[in-house]
Amino acid sequence: MGGFFESAYEGTPPWDIGRPQPEFVRLEAAGEIRGSVLDVGCGTGENALHMAAKGHDVWGIDGAPTAIKKAKAKAKERALKVNFVGHDALRLESLGRTFDTVIDSGLFHVFDDADRKTFARSLGSALAAGGRYFMMCFSEREPGDWGPRRVTQAEVRAAFRSGWRVEWIREARFATINEYGGAEAWLSKISRT
After folding, report:
1. Can you tell me the distance from the alpha carbon of 10 to that of 4, in angstroms, rounded to the nearest whole number?
2. Which domain holds residue 55?
3. How many distinct structural domains can be found in the chain?
4. Buried (b) or exposed (e) across 155-173, using 16+ Cβ within 10 A?
5. H or E element at residue 29
6. 88: domain CATH number?
7. Is the pTM of the predicted complex or chain greater than 0.90?
8. Quick one: pLDDT at residue 2?
């Protein structure tokens, strides 16, 4: 999987829209994003940079070195402080710190069933008690077979059954740069208990 994403970031993948995803902009404007923020699977950093511009202490992690390099260049160009790190989202405990909020724009849906369980455990190690995880993933309502694996609400609830509280799951849409004009998604708010 890492090779696919690394090669995708050597160009401009369809999810790299050059601005933050509108759903995360709305969440921040509504006061849902609180305190320190970890952006898991941050890509070239647009969501993380938006959160930093709004005054949050932000880290962004991604497994693709080219994505991290591009994110760091954007942070420098915009004079924003974000700690961008090449890191595995399945090993968040090794970051050595916790965050008040974790955001995920398109990472969860790349995991297979076993990795989803590992990711939930990993996420729990990086999210403060009572912290919030906002996740947007491909929905099974997206037609066709292009793009990543589709996810149902039941699968989201199953992955975050123990030690978590699924506050809500609602319909959303990924903005993309391809001819499809976006993709059907689920946006979830999940709290650590």
Report:
1. 10
2. 2-192
3. 1
4. bbeebbeeebebeebeebb
5. helix 22-29
6. 3.40.50.150
7. yes
8. 57
